[in-house]
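Bench notes, afternoon.
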Amino acid sequence: MTPSITDSTVKAAIAAIASESATTQEKIEMLIELAHGLQKKPKTPQDLWSTVDLYKRACEMCGDDYPLLKARAKVGIAGALKSIPDEGTELLLQAKAAYTEALPILQQLASKEEIAEAQMNLGLVLQSLVPFNLAQIADSIKAYQDALRVFNSEKYPEEYAILHNNIAIAYLSISTGMEQKQLCEGLAVQTFESALKQINLIENPREYAMLQNNLGNALQYLQSTHPVENNLRAIAAYEEALKVRNSHDTPLEYANTISNKANAMFNLPDDLEKPEKGNPQNLLKARAYYQEAWEIFTQHQQLEQAQVVAQALQELEIELKLQQEKL
């Protein structure tokens, strides 16, 4: 394994670049490239802090002479700060500031793809700040929609799918009055379905599965007068996701989807014509899914998710016992 880069390694890298007989521009580009390489595969949070140091050094070397390189270094700083685990908001606010400073320069000098990527990442930062009342969800959605002008489904299916997924989740997070909430939930479902008209199972399996899984979640929790119909649609979406996700290749995604499917089955009558008869058969199927999901989450040390599934299993056992006593 490659050891994590340390402060002394960063200093050595900066010193090596400084001593090279290269132009200032070439030295700045070397720093940005070094930082970018480290940022792509960090092994510890310290690696990300080291990345920030490299980008900051590149920023200092830019001065006012290399505005595009300076903007790229700021985008790099923002991306690294966004990725550092932190329960507070300070790093997210710094990332927001860096994206906000960089974007006007990128819009003048960079490619449309580079601008769109920065808008997409700014949208994520804003969305993360919304629960702290430090950003508006509408601004996050606008940033995603700006990025979608470039990231279309034909040339950029992965970005297109992720942006639609993020927009739909943003709609679902809007918690105003009941009428507004229903409207936003409907918009979220429409957003997932719209993306799935462009993203298919054969060409983009990973994105297809993500969208189907999250469409299932949106349908399952819709405020609606047709809960059974929504649960059936949700289960159909989960089954589409499970055409891609399996316990061997994508165990955690698979466990996530089967536990979601179990949640829907928990609330689905065995006989749609006679819902009063309960759902012991669907409960038994749900139990098998929950148990399999719990084993996978536990095996992969996803203890929080394992705990949620264990709680659902306890509630299912109580419900199953009640229904069996009625028979």
